[in-house]
Every structure is written in structure tokens, then in C-alpha cells.
Amino acid sequence: MPNQEKRIEESEIFKNAPLEEPARQYYFIEQARELVKKQSEELGRPLTFCCVTFGCQMNARDSEKLTGILEQVGYVTSEDENADFVLYNTCTVRENANLRVYGRLGHLHSLKNKNPHMRIGLCGCMMQESHVVEKIKKSYPFVDLVFGTHNLYKFPELLTTMLLNNRMIVDIWKETDQIVEDLPADRKYPFKSGVNIMFGCNNFCSYCIVPYVRGRERSREPKAIIREIERLVADGVKEVMLLGQNVNSYGKTLEHPITFAELLEEIEKIEGLERVRFMTSHPKDLSDELIAVMAKSQKICHHLHLPLQSGSSRILKEMNRRYDQERYLNLVEKIRGAVPDISLTTDIIVGFPGETEEDFQETLKVVEQVGYDTAFTFIYSKRSGTPAASMENQVPEDVIKDRFDRLLSLVQEKGRQASSRFLGTVQEVLVEEKSRTAPGMLTGRMGQNLLVHFPGDPSLIGEMIPVRLNECKGFYYIGEKI
Ligand code: 5AD
Ligand code: SF4
User: Fold this and answer.
1) Contact residues of ligand 1, CB 6 A cut-off
2) What is the per-residue pLDDT across 226-239, written as a single tens digit (0 to 9) for each?
3) Please, which residues have CB within 8 angstroms of residue 449's CB and are 6 or more apart in sequence?
4) Taking the alpha carbons of 389, 395, 398, 401 in that order, is the dihedral positive or negative?
5) pLDDT for 461-478, tens place per residue?
6) What is the pTM of this model?
């Protein structure tokens, strides 16, 4: 379409757009649908999309929203990145994640050279860093759309703008206090779903970039959360995962503050909902009230992800975690006392600036003592703009690598021991999928987040059923349906 005509169409489309949300975005979904339809008629085939997610569960949930919108607009899923629209939902928590995105952009460029209709979008945490956006503008001019975490809800509007233009569209907001409810989402699993209960983080752990890219903590209204879960349950969902960077501080900033434990009690009442999970818990905010609610609940899974980060009280202070080793271990003891079969998992960073062998030994001691089912271990990554990045005594790479290997082998050994404790018992599992490794088998997930593979008919997928755990294979079981 000649430029002149396109501009007229663009101004018409924008002039008629409602101002209130989410009505405005539903309007743009309609507009984008028309544009996609027109282009696919011209091409004589449907337009395809591929949304690639980097990073955490929050990003995975955001991608379900992005995918839901793309499907409503008329794009169909493509198996790979050879698609008409490729969207990377990026993560920047560690440098590796950024490098992977830059690496893959090179590959996308060659695909775009072969497909003149191809459009490329970038969103998520990495885009909230100004040096990243500068680099993309300068070195990756073939990218069509760049937006961040705060304006994700505006995706239909941004998509429409992109479809009407041939220049790079960049829209990054520094902050937002807005939470837009009720946009479409396409769930990966029909029977389970993530549910955001809050956004952002106020903790400013000294190594972490999240508070800078996800902004200040904002909680959703309990009513909106309950309404979303009720709708999900009516649509076949049995298990929800409540998502937030620090769910234990949920509700503090609401006009009528409520605690996370109180929210859980409300969610427990939803009929038809069978399981509730949540992550992530910050040890400093985990209350006795929450432990009591978990202990008496019929629906809250006996699994707690409780990031340790370091076992050394000195390093924890430098990390600005606001608990020490003693308080962490007391908390673990209290939880185990109230919920004896709880599964504990954690995150640990190796090589924080100034970490000595003695500090590292303290981390090993806590891992030994707690006996986590799983621990996610990370090599410290320097994130510019965080306080830790300007600390002087960065630990040499070879020392970090050696500590990392030692930690990993202890974590694996303890994980194997912890995971085998249910051998011979019968457990309720939610059947999730056909086993990816063993043909003819199904995979079910226990409340404690452990997996069991067992023979069964795929019609059981999405059902809660009892399974006997006959054999422990390290981190998973082989079992039989009873
Ligand atoms: N370097 C290494 N790991 C990090 N994490 C957060 N920031 C960094 C960093 N700069 C880890 C923490 C957190 C998990 C999501 O990522 O362990 O809990
Ligand atoms: Fe990062 Fe700490 Fe917030 Fe977690 S609690 S997102 S580690 S700043």
C-alpha cells in the first residue's frame, strides 16, 4: 500500500480507538485481525507466528497472554522460527540470557532475508534496559517491534502499529501503576494455569536486576484474582500457580491490605479447584500465619520454593537479603514441624563478590542440613546498575567454577535422597502428558512437585488419580495406577 494511503488508514484507526482499557485493546485486536486477514488473502495462506520465551514462570505466563492475542488476531502457530511473526519474550536476570537473544537474532536476520513478510518483535525484561534498546536500534535495525514489561497489555495496539508501518516501533515505559485485567490468554495446558497475583519487586537484593526492569511491587485486587481463578476452573483448570516475585508480601500496598495467607484462604474456597501452588517465597516475609494455613489446607501443595541464595550470614547481609543462616534454618524447621512431608526447593548463587571458601562452606552446610528436593544453582552474573556490580572483590572464574561443581554434586546427592522418600506409597497425581522419554507411559505430578511415569491411557491426561510409586529413578518415579 502506498505510504500516503497507509498513513490515512493509520490515523483513522487511531482516531476511533476508545480510551479506556481493556476496551481499547479489544478494539485493536479487531483492527489487527482485519490487517492480518488482508495480508493472508494476498498471500493465499494463513500468517504464522512463533513466540519464544526466555526466563521465569512470570515470562511464561506473559507469553500465554501474547500468544492468546496473536491467535485472536488470526495468526496460527508455527513449529519453528521460520514464521511471519517471531516474538522473543526476553529475560535479563543473568548475562547468559542476553547473549542467547543476540545470538539468535543473527539467525532470525537470515530468515527474514528469505521471507520479506517476516516481522520480528522483542519484549520482556531485557528491553527495560536502555543500553539494550540502543544496541538493537544500532546493530539490529531489521527488528520491527520493541516493547517492555510495563506496557505488555498494549500489545494489540503495538501490533496494529507495527502492521501499518515499515519502521522499527519502540515503546518502553520506565514504570507503571496500571494493572489491566481481562485480556485473552492461551494456556499451554488446559488443566493448569499460572495466575499473576502481583507484579514487580521492592526488595533490591544487591545482585538482582529484577526491581529495575519489573518496577515497584503492585498487587492485584483479591476480587480480580478470585474472579480469574473461578473462570479458569469453569474452563477445566484444576491447578493454579500463583505468581509473584515475592508472594509473601502480597497485599501490603492495596487500599484494603490483606495478607497472602488470607488470600490463600479465599482461593481455597473456590469449588472445583483442586490444587494451589505459589512462587516465589522470600524467607524474610514468610509468616507463621502462612505456615498455619498451609498445614490445614486441603488444596495447597506441600511444596515450597524458598530461595537461600547463600548459606553465609555475612554474604546474605551483602546481598541485602535481610535474613541470616540461623533465621533461615529456624524457618525450615518450623515449616517441617507443621508440614512434615513438605518438599523444599531453592535457588543458590555461587561466587557473589567477596565470597570466600569459608562462606561457600556455609552454603554447603545449609544444603546438607536442609536436604532440598531440587536446588537451582547459578553462577553469579554481574548486572550493570545493581550495587553488587560495583563491588570490588569479584571472585575469579576458575574459583567459581570449582565451587559450582562441588555444590552441584552435593545438591544432586541430597536431591536423590530426598526425592526417594515416598517410595512404596500411593500419591494423588495430576496427569500432565504422555511421557516424553518412555513410550506408552504417562507423566503425573505429585503435590510435592515430583514426577512419576506410569502406564496408562492418554484419556487420563488432566485427571487427578492415585498412583503407587514402585521404583525411584533418582529424581522421578516409575509407578502404577491403582
Ligand atoms: N546472578 C546469578 N543469579 C542471579 N539470580 C538473580 N540475579 C542473579 C545474578 N545477578 C538468581 C537468584 C534468583 C533466581 C531467579 O535467579 O538465585 O532467585
Ligand atoms: Fe530479585 Fe531479590 Fe526481588 Fe527476588 S526478591 S526478584 S532476587 S530483588
Assistant:
1) 93-94, 207-208, 307, 309, 347, 349, 378, 380-381, 383
2) 999 999 999 999 99
3) 277, 301, 303, 343, 345, 373, 374
4) negative
5) 999 999 999 999 988 999
6) 0.94
